[in-house]
Amino acid sequence: MRPLLLLAALAVAGCASTAVPAGPPDATAERPSDGLLTRPDLQALVDLQVRRDGAALARALTNPDSLVRARAAFALGSVQDPAAVPALRALLDDPVPAVRADAAFAIGQSADTTAGVALAFTLRREATPAVLAEVLDALGKVGGLPDLGVVLTAPLPDALEAARALALARFGMRGVVSDAWAAWLGSHLQDPDAAVRRAAAYGFTRSPMPAWAGQTDAIRAAFDALPGDPARADLARALQTLDEPADIPRLADALATDPDWRTRVSAARALAEADGVEARGALARAVDDPNPHVAQTAAALFADAGPTPDALDIARAVLADDDRPWPVQAALLPVLAPAQPALVLAWADRQTDPFAQAAALRALGSTDDGAALTRLFTDARSDDTRLATAALGALRERWESGGYGARRFYEAYAHALRRADLATTSAAAPALADSAFWPLGAGPLLREVYATLEAPTDVEPMAAIVQAVGKVRDGGEIDFLVGVALAGHPVLRLAARDALNDRLSEGVDVELSGGGTPGTTSVDWVHLAQVGRHPRLILDTDRGTVVLELDTEAAPQTVQRITTTASQGLYDGVPFHRVVANFVVQGGDYARRDGYGGPDTAIRSEFTRLRYGTGTLGMASSGKDTEGSQFFVTHSPQPHLDGRYTAFGQVVDGQDVVDQILQGDVVRRARIVRDPTVPRR
Predict the structure, then answer these.
(1) For the chain, does the N or the C end have fewer beta carbons within 10 angstroms?
(2) Strand residues in 487-638 grouped as ranges (E)
(3) What is the rounded average pLDDT of the residues 419-442?
């Protein structure tokens, strides 16, 4: 039973579950089938894409077969070869609409801002809706201020107003804005079309506030008029940016009453920026929200204010309530740790989920209690890297607070680094860059461990070591950094170059050359033909079943990796190691289960025309062409991910299950159901 202290009821109509339909936000974004699985000539183009052979793909843009031209253009959207842009611009005049659409997509992926003129000209004369949608999207990604004016005034069919709104939001993300831009978005916040409303609201969340300060009345009016509307979550983020006391009551009301948990999460985050009793009281009450994402968010934000008497009372009560999800309890541990570390240690001892135990260790970084410090040094050597990494992070926090001898901390970090483990090495390397550890041998140790790692499998800890070595001054760092900069994985070369550039004031310079594209697996076209164009990935989780439909033609290498991994049973028992409310749930780390693992060989980034809407399936990565086995599913539209992370599927059943998943929940079984149109043999 919950303590009376936390029984303040939330007057939330239906707030425990809100149905937000899954599905692509824009049907025109789906690329029409080109028969890839039965066309060896098109498959050869995908193989060129995998090899990142932009020159060969550019030559295919003049092929007499329109399907070849379109596939080559689409492939260049992933290769992103600047040299191909002139040939792609020429395809905007192609007689076949599908070719023009793929060319526009690829130009948008090129980051070539000089292409805006050609795209704007095409927008004025194009008549095919699918092409117009891609031209608008590309203009949003690369267009300049004159092109913004064209997008604002171009006559478009009503069905493309959502695409216009999203394009304008993309202009805003890049800071390409005007008074007319702000006025258009403001005037469409209550548009009858839900997709237009959502994109217009989104446009205010990732653009410079001074550009839209004149639209505050429209934002507030829409926020007040749209309870339960998905656009309201983005409007709450806009109010957060404004950070005006007058908005505290409306945000507090939304946190208490909006039927959509996503909006309540955004309202909580907005209130965290506000001062005063009303905002803090609203967050305290939201700790009781029936949706664990809202409760966890509110608890974490409430805890940020520190161990005030009311926060301590609430934290103790929540920890004593065994019915609370552990993430909600863990969010309040930082309140208790400074004054009552014994309670945190006792809570940690009761937990069976390693993610919960790790959360307790992170909280202990704020206390100088002797027993807590001993626990951190002990768990820094834990075989479970989730615990070791959390303990190392907490030890770094303690070290940076001052007053400790260097030797004991150095030995803990050195042990973690020598494990040559992705997680512990990544955590220990930046700590060892501290000048107090240089006389103890931090520089040679960092370089020694680096030599034992291999890219791309270990690219993240290797990059962390490179960055740490760049801060060390022991006489051996320059030769090491130059060596990394001249050869190796592109991510490491970039890290070494940046580290060297930080040293230019000391007379160090280097010219980068060499490198290349890391190796990858070839595409198994026989396997893909067997699973078909739209196989389904079925995830039986702790919370229920999620059915995702994959798009083989859009991302063949990715679908191959996911379907083979699932068919081998490797996803069975794997946790969702990362959950960010109103953003994504992420899992698929079958190798380590902590977010640092994956197969030995990475696959390519396959940027597609699928938009990140609610329930979109994407691949996690640590940079282009570093995808492995980890995937994520979105809670809500995330347009800033479009064209940056491989989107290759969509929830077709079970979005309500996705919305219930918490960190540590497990995929009990993953299975693949082939496309029913594939003939049985």
Answers:
(1) C
(2) 536-541, 544-550, 574-575, 578-580, 584-587, 616-619, 631-634
(3) 94
